Amino acid sequence: MIRQEAERKGCKLSQSNSQTNDDDDDDDDEEEEEKRKKKKPTRKSGAEKPKQRGRPRKSPLKEENAAANGIAAGGAGAADAPVQPENGTPKPKRKYVRKQQRTADPPPDEAAEEPPSEAGEEPEPGGRRRRGAAKAALKYLTLLAKEVLSHPSDDPESKSHPGKEDSKSERQTPKAGKRRGRKKKRADSDSSEDKDFVPDVEEEVDPMEEEEEEEDDEDSETDSDMGVHERSPAVQQRSSTSVSGKQHNGLPFSMIRGIWDSAGAYRKFREENHSSWLFPEWLPSTRDWNAVPHSDSGRYVPQELQSAAFSVSREGLSKQDSPQLRLDRFCSLPAHRECWDMVLFTGGPVWALEWCPTPDGAPCRQYVAVACHAGMDDLHPVTRTSSGPGLVQLWDCGELEYNCRPDSPPALVYGLAQDKGFIWGLKWCPSGAWEPPSSNRKASVLPRLGLLAVASSSGVVSIYSLPHPDALLASNRLTSSENNRPPVFKADAVVTLKLGAIKAPRHESGLVLSLDWLPQKPHDVMAVGFYDGVVGLWDLTTKAALLRVREADRSLSLLPHRCFLAHDHAVRALAFCPASRHLLATAGEDRHLKMWDLRRLCDPLMVQKRFLTNEMCWPLTSPGLLIAQDCAFVAKGNQGLHFLGLSTPSYYAIQRNTTVWSMSYSEWLNCVVSADVVGELILSILPQLDHSGPLVKRNILRRFPICFTSMVPREEKEETAEVEEEGGAGVEQEKEQSRKPDEDEEVQRKKGLHLQLDTYKEGVQRSSLHYADSNVKNLGNLEKRSPWKRMKNTESTAKVNMDESTLAALHKVRFSPNMSSHVWLVSGGQAGLLRLHCLRSLISPNARKMIQESRSHFSALHSTQHHTERPTQEQQQDI
Fold first, then answer.
1. Both ends of the chain: CA-CA distance in Å?
2. What per-residue confidence (pLDDT) applies to 225?
3. Over the stretch 447-477, which tens digit does the pLDDT of each residue have?
4. Which residue, among 837, 719, 804, has the nearest Cα to 770 in the 3D structure?
5. What is the mean pLDDT of the chain?
6. d(CA 678, CA 829)
């Protein structure tokens, strides 16, 4: 025992001092061999332990070489053993080489017969050759290049065969690291053995990927906009192959994908929540519609006989003539031969505007209801109610299509006169009120166009059943408008919504400033907001005797079944939630934004104090509200149109430097457009806001200018028109900078004298309007186009003179809610001019296919049904 302990200590001493001590003693040789095997149990030869499948040896040292060289080989191995834990190769690289060698899958005999290392290949402390790691890295880069250059359609096949070499190389690409959720779908039979390899490689690649994401906006927008954590292979393949580059009319795939998803969701919503026939007892009759004599119609129509002088310049049409034009009252211009835009003059400042809804796939004409003030300089106090003449104009815009130019200009078909004061708001019944104009009914019953709710200054809301124009004019033997005198009718409302009780009507609530119709069938609830902060809810189908009041003139009035004080001041906007009939959002002049559960009105569900809100919209596919804000109580740089997320972060959709009077959101296009006090129409394509957080970089590239309105003094009209045609604001800024200081001050002084106006007549005598339209047929290369630069300038650095006349202001803008004409947009404002634009660039092949399918379905449905006097049984069941 003493001898063995001494020999063991001697061996340890010889190993630590040097490797030159050669001992020929057989006992010492056996002890050294025993120790080497204990310290490195995995370095066993193939005779002692069968080699693992696909695992090459890490050390070139062989047992046969150790036996041939005696203690020299054993000493070298013993000397390497204590050095390996201190200066050993990092684990990631060892795993890296092992994975690449395992991919080749060499036979066991070749590993045993591995040639010795060359002179230039220095062994590392772990026993691995340095050149082998370099070769493995080169092989990995070669496989990566092949995978990038290969066709993407190989990806599903490679996923179905995880044992192939291509599938492994695809899982190691940096591109796969960018795709969120793809690491969970990695399938590998030896994942337990080389699971440390992939995370280590990702740690080396992640910094480069982050830099690439900062440079590549399209990829980052796609990852953030789609936001799908677990997607099917088909969706993964489509997203990986379609996001690289401009896909449709200059729009990247991320924006087109959002439009497709929103249109599909809205189509499904209309199929489930819209009805074909509702309110069958509210039908128009010839007894209720009486023509107003021309001698009396003058008190209802607007007073202005001719519009202000205006001109239109269009981007992309170089050196075109833009003469000054004037339109007579109730006249219009035909559609432009290339841009398809149209102009009409209503006769007064426009403050209410709505499209008439039609069924999906119905080949019908499109109508717009318009309400304007009688005088251009009229001011109406909101603190008290008033009565007087008012007029609702119904304009026929023709069969607006997405793929062809309108063949006829807009025309005023008839006007609806009423004596309940000026009109602040209009709202059509969302569905179930339209029927074909060729419907056969009794002689006294007219085919119904729709149900229109009119909010007037007397504090009531009147619902009218509007007939088709052809049937109404034929019954009265009248023609369309002649000599600026359109046919004007007075009709009895089918129902009038009033506050109060049977014996105690309430007149202290003031004007009706906001209203909304329940978007889900049977559309039986109407919400109305008043000046004193009260919100009333009316059940339109109630049979309760205490809520139905028959007036002295035999007209029907409804009382609210529920009222509550929503705000301390006027209710400026309200909107129903399209996903639930029990949720209502309100915005008041007290700067509070509240959400209510109509089943429990004691307390609001949410309260936020932000700013003054002019209009509000609740998108179908987004958990939040779109809000158009006033410039009051808002910090600079935070004005415009916001998406206020309820469960997701908020999103700044459109940045403006002035008050946004109106906004309109299109469920078909997932777009929102704003109209502001300086007369600019700005379109924004929203990201997909239905998941956590829109991580959108450079969202300014999602905004597009549609039209700019400017007031131009008469003596500078020709010069400014040329500037707008050649390049817009950019050229004008260069020209302004090149002027001398004295000339600049003189021009500004003259402009101030000419544009600080008091009345409308002074404005039209000294200045004219200029409309600068953008080319919306293609939305590519935005940053290089002058309208986009002008929009960017007005967002931040432009100064607005609030002392100038608001003749260029736009008060209302609306997208068409109908499927066949959903790319059409109408806007109007202080000048009384209504303009229609067609956003053809947003039409995609999916939208065309959807429209064709709806038309085929509508034709097949109505071809089998004969038109009768009464609705069919299927229509009655939808009620």
1. 105
2. 39
3. 999 999 999 999 999 999 999 999 999 888 7
4. 719
5. 75
6. 10
Tokens standing for 49? 């332990």
708, 686, 719, 721: which is closest to 798 by C-alpha? 708
Query: Can you tell me the distance from the alpha carbon of 48 to that of 67, in angstroms, rounded to the nearest whole number?
Result: 15
For residue 91, the surrounding DSSP H or E stretch is: helix 91-104
Scanning 192-232, the segments in alpha helix (DSSP H) are 197-215, 217-226
Tokens of 306: 């001719």
Q: What is the mean pLDDT of residues 658-666?
A: 93
Quick one: which H or E segment has residue 289?
strand 289-291
The residue-averaged pLDDT of 373-389 equals 89
Q: Where are the beta strands (DSSP E) in 566-702?
A: 571-576, 583-588, 592-597, 606-609, 613-617, 624-629, 640-645, 651-655, 660-666, 671-676, 681-685
Q: What residues are paired with 624 via a beta bridge? A: 645
Handedness of CA 436, 442, 445, 446 (dihedral sign): positive
| Most confident stretch, 236-245, 599-608, 850-859 | 599-608
User: Where do the domains of the chain lie?
Assistant: 2-88, 134-245, 289-738+750-863
Average pLDDT over residues 379-395: 91
Backbone angles phi, psi at 606, to 5 degrees: -150, 140
- The single-letter DSSP state of residue 431 is S
Cβ neighbours for 536, distance < 8 A, ≥ 6 positions apart = 497, 499, 527, 528, 530, 560, 562, 563
- pLDDT-derived band at 324 (thresholds 50, 70, 90) equals confident
Q: What is the CATH number of domain 289-738+750-863?
A: 2.130.10.10
Helices (H), 490-531: none
Written as one letter, the residue type at 704 is F
d(CA 559, CA 500): 7
Q: Has residue 193 got a pLDDT over 50? A: no
- pLDDT of 170 reads 43
How many Å apart are CA 791 and CA 793, to the nearest integer? 5
**Where is 270: in which H helix or E strand?**
helix 253-273
Q: How far apart are CA 791 and CA 730, in angstroms?
A: 11
How far is residue 804's CA from residue 754's CA, in Å, rounded to a whole number? 9
Q: What gap in Å lies between CA 228 and CA 225, rounded to an integer?
A: 9
Task: Read off the pLDDT of residues 589-602 as tens digits, 9 standing for 90 and up.
Answer: 999 999 999 999 99
The answer to whether residue 147 scores a pLDDT higher than 90 is no
SS3 86: helix
